[in-house]
Design brief:
With 328 residues, the protein is α/β, with parallel strands linked by helices. Helices cover 47% and strands 18% of the residues.
């Protein structure tokens, strides 16, 4: 792929020069053979070097070909860091997160993995944090500084209920406020954004019998996120056999709800992941970090061609002066 492919037509000129050089050599050889007095020719004609006498001309022709390719603007796909993207990390702190099916507990494992995610995310990305149980709270507005996010993660506290929809709406509001501030200060407009939602259970607030129709429910929020162009990538964290003790001596099952988390991701245009251990959660965050932190773009790769052409040009000129004390 080239940005200016018409420059490649100059390769025809380079090819013509190469052909002309070969024809010139053949003409010289033919004229030499016509000189019948070979004994006199050996005395009057200087000895010419061997095959390496062609090195200067070959280097110059190769330099012209390489420089022509450079002028055509070769392009290649490359991973480049996103420097303006906004990511809001949304973490479930409902009581089910105290389950110990993930050691030492779901919440403790989530805190470690979330801080690793913050450390590994591309430095130019703005990261925010929302926690939710019965309500949602924006703990850190998007910022390139990772320290406040990590401190807020360390301070997460458990509470009752699970208001997943409110969490998504809160994250969207945080993104929109930050984007408005950025758009006012930058000509490029609002930055791209994504929400990363980690939860281990089904929504309980609101608790209607038709979650698809709840105006503040998770599925409605996911559709709103899709309309706003903010995909929600979900992580269903935990196992099917997790339990917690709410009343003394009574164990309450708190199995993960993969189906709801998958539907949120599908409705919003995001991706769905599952993690049943701290290591798996870290792997998911690492994959998300790669996807969010970098993008594939076509970039100009003409610089190496320019450098190679310049080196060949210098080598050809140098070889011509060294072998024949003249330019080829």
């Amino acid at each position: 792929m080239f940005s200016h492919p018409w420059w490649l037509l100059l390769l025809l000129v380079v090819a013509a020069l190469a052909v002309g050089y070969v024809l010139l050599l053949r003409r010289r050889r033919r004229d030499t053979i016509r000189f019948t007095n070979l004994e006199l020719l050996e005395r009057v004609a200087p000895k010419r070097p061997g095959w390496y006498r062609h090195v200067p001309a070959a280097a110059l022709i190769a330099a012209l070909a390489v420089l022509t390719v450079a002028l055509a603007g070769p392009m290649a796909e490359a991973r480049v860091p996103r420097n303006r993207a906004t990511v809001v990390l949304v973490i479930d702190v409902s009581l089910s997160m105290q389950a110990t099916d993930v050691e030492p507990s779901r919440l403790a494992a989530a805190q470690v993995a979330a801080k690793d995610f913050a450390d590994q995310l591309t430095p130019g990305i703005n990261l925010g944090l929302v926690s939710f149980a019965g309500t949602a709270a924006v703990l850190v507005s998007p910022t390139p500084d990772r320290a406040p996010v990590k401190r807020a993660v360390d301070g997460l506290k458990l509470s009752e209920s699970t208001a997943t929809g409110e969490a998504i709406f809160a994250a969207m509001q945080s993104v929109e406020m930050f984007s408005q501030a950025i758009a006012g200060a930058a000509a490029e407009g609002p930055p791209p954004a994504r929400i990363v939602l980690m939860s281990d259970g089904k929504q309980t607030v609101p608790g209607g019998v038709m979650p698809e129709e709840e105006p503040r429910g998770a599925f409605t929020a996911a559709r709103s996120a899709s309309e706003a162009g903010i995909p929600v990538s979900t992580i269903s964290f935990g196992t099917d056999y997790g339990t917690i003790e709410i009343n003394p001596g009574e164990r309450t099952p708190v199995a993960v709800d993969d189906a709801s988390m998958r539907q949120i991701a599908d409705l919003s245009g995001g991706q769905f992941f599952t993690a049943a251990s701290e290591d798996e959660l870290r792997q998911v965050y690492a994959e998300l970090g790669e996807q969010i932190g970098y993008e594939v773009r076509r970039v100009d790769t003409s610089r190496p061609w320019m450098a190679g052409g310049a080196l060949l040009l210098v080598a050809g000129l140098g070889a011509g002066l060294a072998l024949g004390r003249r330019l080829p």
